[in-house]
Amino acid sequence: MSTQSGITPSSEFLGSFKKFVEDEAPILTAEIIKEVIEVGDVITATPLSKAFDALQSQLDDSTPKYIVVRHADNNVYTFISYVPDYAAVKDKMLYASSKNTLIRQLGSELFAHTLFLNSLDEVSYEHWKHSVSGGSSNALSKEEKALNEVKELELDAKIQSAQKRKLVAPTNSLNFKLHANAEVPVEEGHLYSFNIDLNTEEVFLSNSASLNDAKELPSLISRDYPQYNLLKLNGKTYFIFSCPSGSKVKERMMYASNKNSLINHFKQSNTIDKSIEIGDADELELSEFSNEKKVEEDQGHLKFSRPSRPGRRR
Protein backbone atom coordinates (compact mmCIF):
# COMPACT_ATOMS: atom_id res chain seq x y z
CA MET A 1 0.00 0.00 0.00
CA SER A 2 2.77 2.40 0.98
CA THR A 3 5.58 3.66 -1.20
CA GLN A 4 8.96 2.35 -0.09
CA SER A 5 11.23 5.08 1.27
CA GLY A 6 14.59 3.44 0.57
CA ILE A 7 15.51 3.66 4.27
CA THR A 8 17.15 0.47 5.57
CA PRO A 9 18.51 -0.79 8.93
CA SER A 10 22.16 -0.18 9.75
CA SER A 11 24.60 -3.07 10.14
CA GLU A 12 24.84 -2.17 13.85
CA PHE A 13 21.07 -2.53 14.20
CA LEU A 14 21.06 -5.91 12.47
CA GLY A 15 23.82 -7.08 14.83
CA SER A 16 21.89 -5.83 17.85
CA PHE A 17 18.75 -7.56 16.65
CA LYS A 18 20.61 -10.85 16.25
CA LYS A 19 21.91 -10.56 19.82
CA PHE A 20 18.41 -9.59 21.01
CA VAL A 21 17.06 -12.84 19.54
CA GLU A 22 19.91 -14.96 20.96
CA ASP A 23 19.56 -13.45 24.44
CA GLU A 24 15.76 -13.92 24.38
CA ALA A 25 15.24 -10.38 25.66
CA PRO A 26 11.59 -9.28 25.89
CA ILE A 27 11.47 -6.01 23.92
CA LEU A 28 13.60 -4.09 21.42
CA THR A 29 12.88 -0.63 19.99
CA ALA A 30 14.18 1.01 16.82
CA GLU A 31 14.05 4.50 15.33
CA ILE A 32 14.95 6.30 12.14
CA ILE A 33 18.00 8.53 12.60
CA LYS A 34 19.49 10.40 9.64
CA GLU A 35 17.71 8.15 7.13
CA VAL A 36 18.92 4.92 8.74
CA ILE A 37 17.06 2.58 11.09
CA GLU A 38 19.03 2.32 14.32
CA VAL A 39 18.49 0.37 17.54
CA GLY A 40 16.82 2.35 20.31
CA ASP A 41 16.67 0.30 23.53
CA VAL A 42 16.72 -3.34 24.52
CA ILE A 43 14.46 -3.83 27.51
CA THR A 44 15.43 -6.80 29.68
CA ALA A 45 12.92 -6.44 32.53
CA THR A 46 10.84 -9.53 33.31
CA PRO A 47 8.13 -10.64 33.31
CA LEU A 48 6.81 -9.20 30.04
CA SER A 49 4.23 -7.04 31.83
CA LYS A 50 7.07 -5.17 33.58
CA ALA A 51 8.94 -4.88 30.28
CA PHE A 52 5.87 -3.15 28.81
CA ASP A 53 5.77 -0.77 31.80
CA ALA A 54 9.42 0.12 31.13
CA LEU A 55 8.67 0.51 27.42
CA GLN A 56 5.74 2.86 27.98
CA SER A 57 7.85 5.09 30.24
CA GLN A 58 10.34 5.55 27.38
CA LEU A 59 7.77 6.57 24.76
CA ASP A 60 5.95 9.84 24.20
CA ASP A 61 2.94 10.93 22.17
CA SER A 62 4.85 12.54 19.29
CA THR A 63 7.86 10.31 18.48
CA PRO A 64 7.34 7.19 16.30
CA LYS A 65 9.16 3.95 17.08
CA TYR A 66 9.36 0.42 15.79
CA ILE A 67 8.92 -2.13 18.59
CA VAL A 68 9.68 -5.85 18.57
CA VAL A 69 8.09 -7.96 21.34
CA ARG A 70 9.13 -11.54 22.06
CA HIS A 71 6.35 -13.94 23.00
CA ALA A 72 7.29 -15.41 26.36
CA ASP A 73 6.16 -18.97 25.59
CA ASN A 74 7.76 -19.45 22.14
CA ASN A 75 10.30 -18.01 19.75
CA VAL A 76 7.98 -15.81 17.72
CA TYR A 77 7.59 -12.06 17.83
CA THR A 78 5.15 -9.21 17.36
CA PHE A 79 6.23 -6.25 15.24
CA ILE A 80 4.64 -3.00 16.40
CA SER A 81 4.69 0.15 14.33
CA TYR A 82 4.06 2.92 16.85
CA VAL A 83 3.18 6.14 14.99
CA PRO A 84 1.36 8.51 17.36
CA ASP A 85 -1.25 10.97 16.12
CA TYR A 86 0.84 13.95 17.20
CA ALA A 87 3.95 12.91 15.26
CA ALA A 88 5.12 15.24 12.49
CA VAL A 89 3.66 14.41 9.08
CA LYS A 90 7.10 13.86 7.53
CA ASP A 91 7.94 11.36 10.33
CA LYS A 92 4.67 9.53 9.76
CA MET A 93 5.55 9.25 6.07
CA LEU A 94 9.03 7.91 6.78
CA TYR A 95 7.93 5.29 9.30
CA ALA A 96 4.93 4.15 7.26
CA SER A 97 7.00 3.75 4.09
CA SER A 98 9.96 1.98 5.79
CA LYS A 99 8.08 -0.61 7.85
CA ASN A 100 7.79 -3.38 5.26
CA THR A 101 11.44 -3.10 4.27
CA LEU A 102 12.51 -3.53 7.91
CA ILE A 103 10.25 -6.54 8.46
CA ARG A 104 11.62 -8.25 5.34
CA GLN A 105 15.23 -7.65 6.36
CA LEU A 106 14.68 -8.96 9.88
CA GLY A 107 12.83 -12.01 8.54
CA SER A 108 9.08 -11.84 8.08
CA GLU A 109 8.75 -15.48 9.20
CA LEU A 110 9.72 -14.42 12.75
CA PHE A 111 6.65 -12.26 13.23
CA ALA A 112 3.41 -13.91 14.22
CA HIS A 113 1.63 -10.57 14.47
CA THR A 114 2.05 -7.07 13.10
CA LEU A 115 0.33 -4.25 14.94
CA PHE A 116 -0.15 -0.59 14.13
CA LEU A 117 -0.58 1.63 17.22
CA ASN A 118 -1.15 5.37 17.24
CA SER A 119 -1.84 6.04 20.91
CA LEU A 120 0.45 5.74 23.92
CA ASP A 121 -2.39 4.11 25.87
CA GLU A 122 -2.35 1.21 23.42
CA VAL A 123 1.27 0.39 24.24
CA SER A 124 0.47 -1.83 27.21
CA TYR A 125 0.80 -5.47 28.14
CA GLU A 126 -2.99 -5.86 28.37
CA HIS A 127 -3.59 -4.39 24.90
CA TRP A 128 -0.81 -6.47 23.37
CA LYS A 129 -2.05 -9.69 25.00
CA HIS A 130 -5.58 -9.04 23.78
CA SER A 131 -4.34 -8.31 20.25
CA VAL A 132 -2.33 -11.53 19.94
CA SER A 133 -4.67 -13.87 21.85
CA GLY A 134 -6.46 -15.03 18.72
CA GLY A 135 -4.20 -18.07 18.41
CA SER A 136 -0.68 -19.09 17.55
CA SER A 137 -1.09 -18.89 13.78
CA ASN A 138 1.51 -16.89 11.90
CA ALA A 139 -1.31 -15.00 10.21
CA LEU A 140 -3.38 -12.26 11.81
CA SER A 141 -7.03 -12.92 12.48
CA LYS A 142 -9.50 -11.30 10.12
CA GLU A 143 -10.45 -8.84 12.83
CA GLU A 144 -6.80 -7.89 13.48
CA LYS A 145 -6.14 -7.48 9.78
CA ALA A 146 -9.18 -5.31 9.37
CA LEU A 147 -8.24 -3.15 12.36
CA ASN A 148 -4.67 -2.66 11.16
CA GLU A 149 -5.78 -1.90 7.62
CA VAL A 150 -8.24 0.69 8.90
CA LYS A 151 -5.53 2.32 11.03
CA GLU A 152 -3.06 2.42 8.14
CA LEU A 153 -5.72 3.86 5.86
CA GLU A 154 -6.46 6.47 8.52
CA LEU A 155 -2.77 7.38 8.64
CA ASP A 156 -2.58 7.66 4.84
CA ALA A 157 -5.72 9.77 4.85
CA LYS A 158 -4.32 12.10 7.53
CA ILE A 159 -1.11 12.57 5.57
CA GLN A 160 -2.96 13.22 2.32
CA SER A 161 -5.47 15.49 4.05
CA ALA A 162 -2.70 17.58 5.59
CA GLN A 163 -1.01 17.89 2.21
CA LYS A 164 -4.28 18.80 0.46
CA ARG A 165 -5.10 21.46 3.05
CA LYS A 166 -1.71 23.03 2.44
CA LEU A 167 -2.17 22.68 -1.31
CA VAL A 168 -5.48 24.54 -1.52
CA ALA A 169 -4.90 27.14 1.19
CA PRO A 170 -4.89 30.54 -0.54
CA THR A 171 -2.22 32.15 1.69
CA ASN A 172 -0.10 29.19 2.76
CA SER A 173 -0.11 26.53 0.08
CA LEU A 174 3.31 25.15 0.96
CA ASN A 175 4.45 22.77 3.68
CA PHE A 176 7.39 25.15 4.14
CA LYS A 177 7.50 28.94 4.17
CA LEU A 178 8.49 30.88 1.06
CA HIS A 179 11.49 33.17 1.56
CA ALA A 180 11.11 36.75 0.35
CA ASN A 181 13.86 36.27 -2.25
CA ALA A 182 11.84 33.49 -3.91
CA GLU A 183 9.33 35.99 -5.30
CA VAL A 184 11.04 36.80 -8.59
CA PRO A 185 9.87 38.25 -11.91
CA VAL A 186 10.47 35.54 -14.49
CA GLU A 187 12.39 37.06 -17.38
CA GLU A 188 13.18 35.70 -20.84
CA GLY A 189 16.48 33.86 -21.05
CA HIS A 190 16.78 33.31 -17.33
CA LEU A 191 16.87 30.24 -15.07
CA TYR A 192 15.81 30.56 -11.42
CA SER A 193 16.75 27.75 -9.01
CA PHE A 194 15.04 27.13 -5.67
CA ASN A 195 15.91 24.89 -2.72
CA ILE A 196 14.45 23.95 0.66
CA ASP A 197 16.34 24.95 3.81
CA LEU A 198 15.39 22.08 6.13
CA ASN A 199 16.63 23.98 9.18
CA THR A 200 14.55 27.13 8.69
CA GLU A 201 11.82 25.28 6.74
CA GLU A 202 11.92 27.78 3.89
CA VAL A 203 11.91 27.55 0.10
CA PHE A 204 14.47 30.08 -1.10
CA LEU A 205 16.08 31.28 -4.34
CA SER A 206 19.48 29.58 -4.43
CA ASN A 207 20.69 30.74 -7.84
CA SER A 208 19.74 32.67 -10.95
CA ALA A 209 21.50 32.65 -14.29
CA SER A 210 21.04 34.00 -17.78
CA LEU A 211 21.40 31.72 -20.77
CA ASN A 212 21.12 31.95 -24.54
CA ASP A 213 20.82 28.28 -25.40
CA ALA A 214 19.18 25.26 -23.80
CA LYS A 215 22.52 23.43 -24.07
CA GLU A 216 23.68 25.45 -21.07
CA LEU A 217 20.94 24.01 -18.80
CA PRO A 218 22.61 20.78 -17.57
CA SER A 219 25.57 22.73 -16.19
CA LEU A 220 23.28 25.12 -14.29
CA ILE A 221 21.13 22.52 -12.51
CA SER A 222 22.44 20.94 -9.29
CA ARG A 223 23.95 17.46 -9.55
CA ASP A 224 24.17 16.97 -5.77
CA TYR A 225 20.72 17.66 -4.35
CA PRO A 226 17.08 18.08 -5.50
CA GLN A 227 16.07 21.42 -6.93
CA TYR A 228 13.13 23.33 -8.32
CA ASN A 229 13.84 25.44 -11.40
CA LEU A 230 11.88 28.05 -13.32
CA LEU A 231 13.06 28.70 -16.87
CA LYS A 232 11.79 31.13 -19.46
CA LEU A 233 13.17 30.43 -22.92
CA ASN A 234 11.83 31.07 -26.42
CA GLY A 235 8.73 32.69 -25.00
CA LYS A 236 7.71 29.72 -22.83
CA THR A 237 7.98 29.16 -19.08
CA TYR A 238 9.04 25.75 -17.75
CA PHE A 239 9.03 24.30 -14.23
CA ILE A 240 11.83 21.74 -13.89
CA PHE A 241 12.04 19.48 -10.86
CA SER A 242 15.39 17.69 -10.66
CA CYS A 243 16.14 14.91 -8.19
CA PRO A 244 19.69 13.52 -8.65
CA SER A 245 20.30 9.84 -7.97
CA GLY A 246 22.87 10.65 -5.28
CA SER A 247 20.59 12.90 -3.21
CA LYS A 248 19.44 11.87 0.26
CA VAL A 249 16.20 9.95 0.76
CA LYS A 250 14.71 12.49 3.14
CA GLU A 251 15.49 15.34 0.73
CA ARG A 252 13.87 13.48 -2.16
CA MET A 253 10.69 12.94 -0.15
CA MET A 254 10.52 16.54 1.07
CA TYR A 255 11.03 18.01 -2.39
CA ALA A 256 8.58 15.61 -4.03
CA SER A 257 5.85 16.33 -1.47
CA ASN A 258 6.15 20.11 -2.03
CA LYS A 259 6.45 20.10 -5.82
CA ASN A 260 2.79 20.44 -6.82
CA SER A 261 2.00 23.12 -4.25
CA LEU A 262 5.01 25.17 -5.37
CA ILE A 263 3.89 24.89 -9.01
CA ASN A 264 0.44 26.15 -7.97
CA HIS A 265 2.05 29.06 -6.14
CA PHE A 266 4.09 30.08 -9.19
CA LYS A 267 1.02 29.78 -11.40
CA GLN A 268 -0.57 32.64 -9.46
CA SER A 269 1.85 35.08 -11.11
CA ASN A 270 3.19 33.16 -14.12
CA THR A 271 1.94 30.97 -16.92
CA ILE A 272 3.64 27.59 -16.59
CA ASP A 273 3.64 26.12 -20.09
CA LYS A 274 5.16 22.80 -19.11
CA SER A 275 6.28 20.91 -15.99
CA ILE A 276 9.28 18.60 -16.39
CA GLU A 277 10.58 16.06 -13.86
CA ILE A 278 14.06 14.53 -14.18
CA GLY A 279 16.60 12.64 -12.12
CA ASP A 280 20.08 13.84 -13.04
CA ALA A 281 20.58 17.02 -15.06
CA ASP A 282 21.91 15.03 -18.03
CA GLU A 283 18.46 13.47 -18.47
CA LEU A 284 17.03 16.73 -19.81
CA GLU A 285 15.66 16.46 -23.34
CA LEU A 286 17.02 19.71 -24.73
CA SER A 287 14.70 19.49 -27.72
CA GLU A 288 11.87 20.42 -25.30
CA PHE A 289 13.19 24.00 -25.21
CA SER A 290 14.03 24.57 -28.88
CA ASN A 291 12.13 26.17 -31.73
CA GLU A 292 12.42 23.04 -33.86
CA LYS A 293 8.67 22.75 -34.35
CA LYS A 294 8.50 26.24 -35.81
CA VAL A 295 11.47 25.52 -38.06
CA GLU A 296 9.84 22.31 -39.24
CA GLU A 297 6.59 24.15 -39.95
CA ASP A 298 8.45 26.78 -41.93
CA GLN A 299 10.31 24.11 -43.84
CA GLY A 300 7.00 22.46 -44.66
CA HIS A 301 6.05 25.49 -46.74
CA LEU A 302 9.25 25.51 -48.80
CA LYS A 303 9.02 24.32 -52.38
CA PHE A 304 11.90 22.47 -54.00
CA SER A 305 12.46 22.18 -57.76
CA ARG A 306 12.58 18.66 -59.07
CA PRO A 307 16.09 17.85 -60.33
CA SER A 308 16.40 17.69 -64.10
CA ARG A 309 16.89 14.39 -65.85
CA PRO A 310 20.43 13.56 -66.95
CA GLY A 311 21.43 14.73 -70.44
CA ARG A 312 18.51 17.09 -70.77
CA ARG A 313 18.82 20.86 -71.02
CA ARG A 314 16.37 23.18 -69.36
From TrEMBL:
Keyword Transmembrane helix: no
SMART domains linked to this entry: ADF
Any Pfam family the entry gives: Cofilin_ADF
GO biological process: actin filament depolymerization; barbed-end actin filament capping
Gene3D superfamilies according to UniProt: Severin
Biased composition range(s): Basic and acidic residues: 290-301
Cellular localisation: Cytoplasm, Cytoskeleton
Span list, region Disordered: 290-314
Assembly with partners or alone: Interacts with G-actin; ADP-actin form.
Superkingdom field: Eukaryota
Keywords of the record: Actin-binding, Cytoplasm, Cytoskeleton, Repeat
Protein's recorded name: Actin depolymerizing protein
